[in-house]
Amino acid sequence: MEKNKIQFLTRTAIIAAAYAALTYAFAFMSYGEVQFRISEILVLLVFIEPKYGLGLILGCILANIASPLGVIDIVVGSFATFLAIAYITALRKVLPYSKKSLAIASLGPVISNALLVGMELTYLFNTPFLLNALYVAIGEFVVVTIAGTVVVSTIMKNNNLIEKLIFN
């Protein structure tokens, strides 16, 4: 097996495990109508290296296996993560690498999760969609847009770390 394939598989597994582990570690606030999923910060790594997307989707699948909401959360949550990753990847291709573009990229997870998880919660709990979407958006905004952009902006300042995060 080539070095690049081994590197890709290893990093994919590490990202998936990190996402799932962070979700489990903070399970008390990772599931339900109001959620602050700390692992969502990792979604912004796609802004640095798009190849982390697969690991994030797999991590979301693994994390949602334990969801009290059942199989629907595996499907809907993972699809919301996929859409967020697609948005960030597309945006990264057209905007320069900056704090401003990172902030704009952080809105992808907020919107995709608010809409899809909001619909899921409406379906499961028969509660108002706008309220569900708002709750999910607030949680995602706090975790991804506020905390996540600080974390990733800090990483972006370290050229040695960036070189190690980007696939060769």
Kindly describe this structure.
The chain has 168 residues and is mainly α. It has a single domain, classed as Arp2/3 complex 21 kDa subunit ARPC3 (Orthogonal Bundle). Helix content is 75%, strand content 0%. It contains seven helices and no strands. It is globular. The two termini are 15 Å apart.
Head-to-tail CA distance between termini? 15 Å
CATH level 3 topology: Arp2/3 complex 21 kDa subunit ARPC3
Largest beta-sheet details = none
Number of helices: 7
Low-confidence stretches: none
The coarse overall form would be: globular
How many structural domains can be distinguished in the coordinates?
Answer: 1
Q: What tags apply to this protein structure?
A:
168 residues; mainly alpha; globular
Can you describe this structure in just a few lines?
Helices cover 75% and strands 0% of the residues.
Secondary structure layout:
Elements: H1 3-25, H2 45-48, H3 53-65, H4 71-94, H5 99-125, H6 129-156, H7 159-165
Helix pairs in contact: 1-3, 3-4, 4-5, 5-6
